[in-house]
Design brief:
Chain lengths: ~230, ~60
């Protein structure tokens, strides 16, 4: 494995700094929302993690296509990295949403279209790793994985659009929301600063973790190849 | 009836941020541990490979 690039070390430091700034903006800088109180502050990380989670799933679908075209296993490793990092961020999104829902909707969970599609998306990608575990041949595993992420990728735009297309209680902060939405609010300029900075922060952190995960995949591949060579 | 005071939902907010940071921390730790284990495997396999090579040379 090559030594850690300087750019990645810089990205690590930048990620920590922007995360600290983003937490400050969300927790202290942004004003307290008048109806929901302090719990509204989870919104900034909720949307930030959802943004990179869904984008990562779409990116995995694209790398799946690239693998199917090129048959280069490097793209399979990129795809796995995108899915794994997105899965972690999207898990945070769902948990934060549930925590927000308890005081806002008086329930931890409801089978609303947005929550249902989000849960399905998360389960689709958990199943992706189960599928990969069940296939031993690397090329077959990569091919199945690529087709799976291609199909699974459809769930990302559906999850994003569902609150704009269906009657749902999930609020839409940017754009028109359903008449049934509960817990929506208009962002003040300070809230917008915290919100857009959170989007930027999680984009930076995603790129950082994604890069680390690709390097981990490369190392795994190297170990596997050497293991095969030694066992011959 | 009008809502005159902001409800105290700070406990939920703290729980949310703790879970977010702990989840990210666990993931970073898992990547570090996996990387460390793989590096150990790699050095073991490389030494085994070198042994094989030196044995083959002697023959």
């Amino acid at each position: 494995m090559q030594s850690k690039p300087l750019a990645l070390t810089i990205l690590d430091v930048v990620s920590i700094i922007v995360l600290a700034i983003s937490a400050y903006l969300a927790l202290f800088f942004a004003p307290t929302e008048a109806v929901m109180g302090q719990v509204q502050r989870v919104f900034y990380f909720h949307v930030g993690t959802a943004w990179v989670g869904l984008l990562g799933f779409l990116f995995a679908a694209i790398t799946g296509i690239v693998y199917l075209v090129t048959k280069d296993l490097k793209w399979d490793r990129v795809e796995v990295a995108a899915v794994e990092v997105s899965l972690v961020f999207f898990f945070i999104t769902i948990v934060l949403g549930s925590i927000w829902a308890r005081p806002a909707w008086n329930t931890w969970w409801t089978w609303d279209p947005r929550l249902t599609t989000a849960a399905i998306t998360e389960l689709i990608y958990i199943a992706y790793f189960m599928l990969r575990q069940s296939i031993e041949d690397p090329e077959r595993r990569a091919r199945f994985g690529a087709v799976y992420t291609l199909l699974g990728g459809i769930s990302a735009p559906i999850t994003f659009m569902v609150i704009r297309l269906f009657r749902t209680i999930h609020p839409v902060v940017i754009g028109n929301q359903s008449a049934a939405a509960q817990g929506g609010f208009d962002m003040t300029s300070d809230m917008k600063v915290a919100f857009f900075f959170a989007l930027f922060t999680f984009t930076v952190i995603f790129v950082d973790l994604f890069w680390h995960r690709i390097r981990l995949g490369d190392l795994q591949d190297k170990v596997e190849q050497l293991r095969l060579k030694v066992s011959m | 009836m009008f809502l005159e005071t902001i409800p105290d939902t700070s406990g939920y907010m703290i729980a949310g941020y703790v879970i977010a940071f702990v989840t990210m921390g666990i993931y970073v730790a898992s990547m570090y541990i996996r990387s460390r284990n793989l590096k150990q495997d790699l050095s073991t396999l490389e030494s085994m490979d070198n042994e094989h090579k030196s044995k083959a040379k002697r023959k």
